[in-house]
Amino acid sequence: MTDPSAPSDPGSDPVTADLGFARVDLDRARRTGDPEVVYGAGKTPEQVLDILATLHARHPDRAVLATRLAPEALALLGAELPGVRLDPLARAATLGPLPEPQGTVAVIAAGTSDGPVAAEATLSVQVHGAAVRRVDDVGVAGIHRLLEARAEFADADCVVVVAGMEGALPSVVGGLVGVPLVAVPTSVGYGASFDGLAALLGMLNSCAPGVVVVNIDNGYGAGVHAARVARNARRRG
Amino acid sequence: MTDPSAPSDPGSDPVTADLGFARVDLDRARRTGDPEVVYGAGKTPEQVLDILATLHARHPDRAVLATRLAPEALALLGAELPGVRLDPLARAATLGPLPEPQGTVAVIAAGTSDGPVAAEATLSVQVHGAAVRRVDDVGVAGIHRLLEARAEFADADCVVVVAGMEGALPSVVGGLVGVPLVAVPTSVGYGASFDGLAALLGMLNSCAPGVVVVNIDNGYGAGVHAARVARNARRRG
Amino acid sequence: MTDPSAPSDPGSDPVTADLGFARVDLDRARRTGDPEVVYGAGKTPEQVLDILATLHARHPDRAVLATRLAPEALALLGAELPGVRLDPLARAATLGPLPEPQGTVAVIAAGTSDGPVAAEATLSVQVHGAAVRRVDDVGVAGIHRLLEARAEFADADCVVVVAGMEGALPSVVGGLVGVPLVAVPTSVGYGASFDGLAALLGMLNSCAPGVVVVNIDNGYGAGVHAARVARNARRRG
Amino acid sequence: MTDPSAPSDPGSDPVTADLGFARVDLDRARRTGDPEVVYGAGKTPEQVLDILATLHARHPDRAVLATRLAPEALALLGAELPGVRLDPLARAATLGPLPEPQGTVAVIAAGTSDGPVAAEATLSVQVHGAAVRRVDDVGVAGIHRLLEARAEFADADCVVVVAGMEGALPSVVGGLVGVPLVAVPTSVGYGASFDGLAALLGMLNSCAPGVVVVNIDNGYGAGVHAARVARNARRRG
Amino acid sequence: MTDPSAPSDPGSDPVTADLGFARVDLDRARRTGDPEVVYGAGKTPEQVLDILATLHARHPDRAVLATRLAPEALALLGAELPGVRLDPLARAATLGPLPEPQGTVAVIAAGTSDGPVAAEATLSVQVHGAAVRRVDDVGVAGIHRLLEARAEFADADCVVVVAGMEGALPSVVGGLVGVPLVAVPTSVGYGASFDGLAALLGMLNSCAPGVVVVNIDNGYGAGVHAARVARNARRRG
Amino acid sequence: MTDPSAPSDPGSDPVTADLGFARVDLDRARRTGDPEVVYGAGKTPEQVLDILATLHARHPDRAVLATRLAPEALALLGAELPGVRLDPLARAATLGPLPEPQGTVAVIAAGTSDGPVAAEATLSVQVHGAAVRRVDDVGVAGIHRLLEARAEFADADCVVVVAGMEGALPSVVGGLVGVPLVAVPTSVGYGASFDGLAALLGMLNSCAPGVVVVNIDNGYGAGVHAARVARNARRRG
Amino acid sequence: MTDPSAPSDPGSDPVTADLGFARVDLDRARRTGDPEVVYGAGKTPEQVLDILATLHARHPDRAVLATRLAPEALALLGAELPGVRLDPLARAATLGPLPEPQGTVAVIAAGTSDGPVAAEATLSVQVHGAAVRRVDDVGVAGIHRLLEARAEFADADCVVVVAGMEGALPSVVGGLVGVPLVAVPTSVGYGASFDGLAALLGMLNSCAPGVVVVNIDNGYGAGVHAARVARNARRRG
Amino acid sequence: MTDPSAPSDPGSDPVTADLGFARVDLDRARRTGDPEVVYGAGKTPEQVLDILATLHARHPDRAVLATRLAPEALALLGAELPGVRLDPLARAATLGPLPEPQGTVAVIAAGTSDGPVAAEATLSVQVHGAAVRRVDDVGVAGIHRLLEARAEFADADCVVVVAGMEGALPSVVGGLVGVPLVAVPTSVGYGASFDGLAALLGMLNSCAPGVVVVNIDNGYGAGVHAARVARNARRRG
Lengths: 237, 237, 237, 237, 237, 237, 237, 237
What we know:
The structure is a homooctamer of 237-residue chains. With 237 residues, the first copy, chain A, is an alpha/beta fold. Helices cover 34% and strands 19% of the residues of chain A. The first copy, chain A, has helices at 28-32, 45-58, 71-80, 115-127, 143-148, 169-176, 197-204, 219-235, and strands at residues 16-18, 23-25, 38-39, 64-67, 85-87, 92-95, 104-109, 131-136, 158-163, 181-185, 211-213. A five-stranded parallel sheet of chain A has the order 8-7-9-10-11, sandwiched between helices. A four-stranded mixed sheet of chain A has the order 3-4-6-5, with helices on both faces. The first copy, chain A, is globular and about 55 Å long.
């Protein structure tokens, strides 16, 4: 790779698109292997539309992603962008063809209420180039469900474990397999769960070795990390 | 039982022993079935000695208990009170004969480091009238250890589960059996465990039904509750 | 009991019902003595309906329970499930006959505003097989109300104490009787109550021996624990 | 009173004594009725000595007070200041005659471990001009002890209630009498008491009307407030 | 006074009114000098109406108070209770004649936004028997405003200081006068004020002697304490 | 300057305007160089209008500012105050001519979502007498954008850096230039950002020397400080 | 792999070694690919010695690891275990030959004070089968140091970034390369760093995509995860 | 200035000194106007010595600074570095001649206990090129002391206000003058001051306009910012 801080060559592609309200980082795929993603929270539907279209124009042969979309933003994208794929459960949208998957990520969710976060993780894995295998509703209070499903995740290249409440599931999964494991705390719970803080702390203190954690409800971040792990495991050999 | 707030009969036993620095509650066993216990923290060894001796004089036929004892207090009790039994791991001492046990409590500990808290719980159960079965070092990162030991706790009258770090063990145990279960978070851990807060929050948010929780490192409180549950299960029928 | 992790016998009843969005734990009653309960928060009314009907089909002779129901879910259950019993104050519903009660739980509430949590605890006790005696509005600022009512809870098999604000009531009750006691902090209060945190911390630090605690507003969890304690006290002898 | 911000008359007494390391507020008694008090924490024994001697020189006919004194500071004051009175339990010292007491403050402590804070409150009340009646070791887990002692505080002019752990005592006292009541949380406790935070939050959320609170372990602040309330109740009529 | 825990004489007035949803403490005025107050949060308008009417029937010659009233509750009281006085800014209502004021409380507010809390404090003082002098909008960023107004509060019998944001005003007032001072933190502020936590902590750590504190936005609690202080200062002499 | 606490001369301008609900500090410009600013939160539109008009009448030749305005307040000001300038993004309004700018402040924002806070900072700088240069959307995940823009802020008289999420931007900017730098954390983020707390803590712990911080979302405070720094840098020489 | 919960074959190797004080998980390498690691905190030197020797006997051809060792434990291991390798900076020890490294992990540290945590991460990577490249003292306040060193980490298979204070380094590194990245917050800092909480929150809220986080000072956990990622990237192809 | 990220010219001075354990940023003075400062916490005395000597060699004509020095580090520097100046109260050391001061910073401290932090601020201002005027022990509980001293800070180029406990002093100073003001919370206090958190929150929520804040006890950071503000105010005109 070249020096990321070098002044851009006048004849080369621009590294930034100035939309007035945003400087879109057109150079990110060159530096990191993946295009910039639109974080929809705090942006108007029109801003989301503009940035996503700009990124698609730069990367026409590869899916670009927008997350944390309000219903209004989903509706506007659906109306204005031909070919856009909307995922209302994940509150996300993609434009352009998904990359050929390399490697597999298992996305495991503790309960039905963790579904939206698991969906965001799933879509993020796919956009970043890996395949997904889903294992849902295997919370630790019925441990037989998890043991029955062990074969579904034991040979994945990376595992994403999504759980709210006490967030115990990653510790149990992490003791069953040695696959690289990313834990996602969710805001599912009440009272002293403090909107996901209990699950977050639980996962950070997991007694299983090698558990790593992302922000509360951050299915996207877990998906990006897991996809990179999985595709490298298959791509490089 | 009689009215606890009724003025004490002049001819009857006094309900309070005034030691100057403390009003010992001599009436507690009548009201609650168990004598007062000496909480040693913040008291001088001499104060612990005086209160324990006072309680023993009132209840000569039944063990009385002192907890949270500094080494100096343990040493003084050992030197001054014939017949005292010291438990340095639990940092506790008892004086007088243990009651005949009724019912059984399983005390399950996640790791070796949780030993002192499990020891305090064990002794507290015994002093309050039930038998104890210990199951140690069965943390969730090696779930087979817990499954192998299931028979040791599945038919107890109450289960006490002691764990630090993420505190996931009660959720798994609580999904395997329907025995009344008390969870004890310990201060084992570091960083974002915040001296046991992570385990406490995890246990309060357990997805297993009916898990109840005591303060961090409070083996004593869990032991009292569990003993009362266990002895009632056997005594009343 | 049999090994909970053993592969299910092909000819036996299935241990899991796969509804697509959920893996219902049909085996829980065998393992723990009580069927799975539907936690309604974060689920659509249709999902609640499906799971509750599935559980009822498995356990036709015993009440199954759904908690934390939005008005829409209560309405749908009322319309679609003949014989369902709705409890709007507890925000819960049951289907099937209540078990014959064994043992008695006293549910004590500090104030009128704690009513919904006390109602959830009450119903949970009944569904899990014990009888309930209610003692309401006996906060510590008028201690005579509690002392007058002492006879109503002194001989129960377990006591559930529900309180918000400073959460002092369990300490006072716990000093009056030796019945196993479960404290439920509620989110009643304002300012530095921090949505029930003050009451939760107060109860965790109770100076009365043997007080155990559940999550803020978790009447259900207290009810399950108390029912198990109470029914064992009567059943086993 | 005169304008506190007016430039000081050249011929009058100075309002500030500049000791180099401190500007002693010699004017405070004129403005507020009480001399400045030396807060010993973070000061060297020599600094404490200098300030206390300076205040005594200004107020020879009235006791001045130093609090939060390390053993070294207590020793130095004892050696250098003839007539000083040391109170090691309260970690405080006074110099000069106590004022004639007007009105009475009841200082109630929940447990033996709260003794040092109660001692600081007691001395502070006396230095600020009121009499003290002590009621010790009347925690709520043995409510009969408090009810027996009710006559000792029901007719005081102000009540100071000192308690750690869950801090429930002020709520019970506040429901028994209508005397102005100041609650002092102490750092007595462990685990989720968080060095007195649980007691502080409990007292701030007291369901008893009119309970006011000071900082954790701040016996001094409670004593000053209570003495002012008590002496005004007697002085003005 | 008589023993508050004594069984009530059959021929005497009842000490509790059982409304089904509430046990109204009819005995509180005898024990504490003031009737019970209706805390409106978490109660239906009909419940507020019932309790207030019950208290008024017991205390026809003295104002009774309801606080934290939603607009619906204020409307219902206005429609159903002849003679009720509504205070929408304080979100409170009173029924029955105010007592003859004894002593004076100065209620000082830092800013316009603190008005509702100051109004609740003001009304609570009046209902509990003292007169009020208001001093508004004298925040510390314009200290001359406070110094100009000093005469308005320097000779009060008690001072209530209401402030949000950093909560500095009590420290400045407390350095100017020696009147007993109650500080009320308000939830005015944003960001790291954390809904009044910054002001609460500031006031608890005031460097001015004798500052006592109530819960965030608790004008009622401050008013009760201050009224008791003020009326005792005038009544007893 | 004169003594701020001196009694006002009867013949001079009044230092306070009493609007009934507010004591407007008309003297602030004399003491501090800048007029009082109207903080709109918690005030009715009519109160905002009255105070802004009063300040404008006192300072007709200099812009006065109102911040944190609800849409209703913006609308009322627009309708009632000829010449008012509304800034809906900043949620602010000004009345009267902006001062001639002296010195320049660079306002740097990490992302598009930080726009409203950057707008409040920008307007506040202008009202307090300095010029602004904006540098937007230069978050640290694309460091080349910041390096490219370095010339735009390296020679400013003060830099304001606005960022949410992890709040890392001030540390990077602070290592590139030695201009006095004010960091503004924003509430942009989710989960463990805790409404801006993560960014606030990050900025307070910046490893770059001399970074100072204001409250979450407090563009106004940063703007006032920066303008004073910038205008002094140019004015005094 | 085989069923982890299957009863162990009587003729096969035992899956657990019962040392009395610990049940050593001898089966972990079979399930997860790596042997159990000895967490030394809270264990006596003798316990550490016993467990490490037991693990070494089971895995003689592969290094086993003990972490968080007090000086006494390090000394005992050095004296009793021939061939042990001590790493005092990392506070760790290994016994047995390191595995042949597959893949490379870059361990990047922000400052000199982060050295111990980086050392623990380094050793953990090596024990778990990957090579390490170290890049030290490249904090964001001198961004040129990091840019100069970019080639040292841009082609690694995984990156571990260790930083205290505001924890900004992972965000900048994460914007420069697309390598899977694990962030380790350290307790380096003071005041509002709250022993690493500021860095932890900063990293959880990183604006760079795919950043995952471990507990404060948890170099071990980051090392395990990174080694698994790196060795899979090379092993499987 | 030149591009900070440009590759260094082979013939020019090196921008980094590699000491093995540290990469000293020799280029910082060129980029920011001030040399790197040695943060002594977490470094051995020998490391501090090496870095300070390296920086001095690069900047022989200008003082370089080391802060947060343990007594051992102070002693070693005194023994090994001729000409070093030690400041034990500030726990800091400087080497090389102080720059000619330009502009003046007033450092105001609330109490005697804040002295060490004020000393660190003072030295930091001087090393970074401005003069200091000290105003000590002017806490808000004796407001006349501050008003008397107003002339000492009203005409400074920048004001640093150091305070613990409730941290109210910056608000009062900020209302008296319009000088750019930096607030430094200190860890002076106890109980609910939470080691300076109360003062930090108070200052962040100051009602005085333009108050900016640094980390708890961070006299250094405040000094750097203030010196830059002050010297620019004088240098540039």
